[in-house]
Design a protein that fits this description.
The protein is mostly helical.
């Protein structure tokens, strides 16, 4: 007999997303792309930095700024993805659990990471369409 809480192909691997981290990451990336593309902001000779016109050093300044903004955007998106995966493993959605929830994962013999499950998701191609000896 199969367990009622065993993962299937329809088991979500991620909980619902919060839009704020993705929106902030998009704004940061848009700033790194769009602002250097507006030459009216920096097509001046002065102020000079080490004899270099503003036009050149302003563009060079955007190289580390863009790297930093890209790094922050990456951190935001991966943190949100990690949170969504952990929430799905715990079997709760952020809306259902609510703040301060002490929801735990599936019981003994439960989820895909439990002992005896091999640590694989039921939808993995390694299992060739069968779980144990029972066909799907």
């Amino acid at each position: 007999m199969s367990e009622s809480n065993a993962p299937t192909r329809d088991t979500p691997t991620r909980a619902p997303a919060r839009p704020v981290p993705y929106a902030v990451a998009g704004v940061l990336l848009a700033a790194a792309i769009v602002l250097p593309l507006i030459p009216q902001m920096y097509s001046f000779d002065r102020p000079r930095l080490g004899g270099m016109p503003f036009f050149y050093w302003y563009q060079l300044l955007w190289v580390p700024i863009s790297a930093a903004l890209s790094g922050i955007a990456y951190w935001l998106v991966t943190s949100e993805d990690r949170r969504r995966r952990e929430a799905a493993r715990a079997g709760t959605s952020p809306a259902a659990a609510g703040p301060g929830s002490t929801a735990t994962g599936p019981g003994p013999g439960g989820g895909p990471g439990s002992p005896g499950s091999g640590g694989r998701h039921a939808a993995s191609s390694d299992e060739a369409g069968r779980e144990g000896d029972e066909p799907r």
